[in-house]
Write a structure and sequence with these properties.
By secondary structure, the protein is of the alpha/beta class. Helix content is 16%, strand content 25%. The chain is built from four helices and 24 strands. Strands 2, 4, 5, 7, 8, 10, 11, 13, 15, 18 and 21 form an eleven-stranded parallel sheet that branches. A ten-stranded parallel sheet has the order 1-3-6-9-12-14-16-19-22-24, with no helix packed on it. The protein is elongated and about 100 Å long. The N and C termini lie far apart (76 Å).
């Protein structure tokens, strides 16, 4: 049922509850409209256009109908979807040309995807901008405020939030990049995280263009990694790294000859030998 917005409140206020159940029925608006000398018309349409939602099951049915429409519109616009029935879209999703979406991708509100971008399987994207020819996933999570430049690569099990990654940036494995700005063509190694939260406030990490951050590094914000800088694997960086500098922060390695054997003997002393 639809009303002229200029008359809607006036009509609704006249609906009474003089019935056996003392309830207010919206359908009584038809009689009210006629009494007011206004026009009431019937429009024939499909069930899906006027589908009622009173239960969770009915809500799921309506979502199913809506998703089918969104997928069809995307396909008609030239988006390649390998398994359309497994992809979930939002009403405001914007696609460039020649976009590819693999199976089991969820795209929430506020997402735009540039020309030639590929979204790999099992990725979840919300309120993010994905540049031309960018690659996302598989198993990636792009949270609100993420912006990927042209040709950027977000790999498997990578999470981003409130992060700008400029053109050509690579974050290929098992990393968290939050509250950050990463310059063009920087490379972020596997297992790297930006430690953006100190328990009270969020802080920003800035990584310059062309920088290389080695695997399993922790960047404790607020901190800046300069352009062209190199951070050694396993480092915990708490101070700014200048442009083109090499930063390595890890404790020295100690090898104790025969230590493994002595430790094993200590742990198994007095116990029966295990059959291997």
């Amino acid at each position: 049922m639809a009303f002229d917005g200029r008359k809607a409140l006036q009509i609704i206020e006249k609906i009474g509850n003089a019935n056996s159940k003392g309830e207010y029925y919206l359908s009584d608006a038809v009689a009210v409209v006629r009494e007011m000398g206004l026009e009431a018309v019937v429009i024939e349409t499909s069930e899906d256009e006027v589908r009622g939602i009173n239960t969770k099951a009915q809500l799921a049915e309506a979502e199913h109908v809506m998703q089918a429409r969104l997928r069809q519109a995307a396909l008609d616009a030239g988006v390649t979807m390998v398994a359309p029935e497994t992809v979930y879209l939002a009403a405001d999703t914007k696609f460039g040309s020649d976009v590819t979406i693999e199976p089991f991708v969820v795209i929430g509100p506020g997402v735009s995807i540039g020309d030639g971008a590929v979204i790999h399987s099992f990725s979840h994207i919300v309120q993010a901008s994905i540049g031309n020819k960018a690659s996302v996933g598989p198993y990636a999570r792009l949270r609100p405020g993420t912006s990927l430049g042209e040709g950027a690569r977000i790999g498997n099990f990578v999470e981003t939030k409130a992060a700008t990654l400029e053109a050509g940036v690579k974050v290929n494995h098992l990393s968290y990049i939050g509250d950050a700005h990463v310059g063009a063509n920087a490379n972020i190694g596997a297992g790297t995280i930006t430690c953006n939260y100190d328990g009270f406030d969020k802080h920003k990490t800035t990584i310059g263009s062309g920088a290389f951050v080695g695997s399993n590094s922790s960047l404790v914000a607020p901190v800046k990694i300069g352009a062209g800088a190199y951070v050694g694997s396993g480092s915990v960086i708490t101070r700014d790294v200048p442009d083109d500098a090499l930063a390595v922060e890890r404790s020295g390695q100690t090898n104790r000859d025969g230590g493994a054997r002595r430790y094993s003997e200590m742990k198994t002393k007095g116990k029966p030998a295990k059959v291997r």
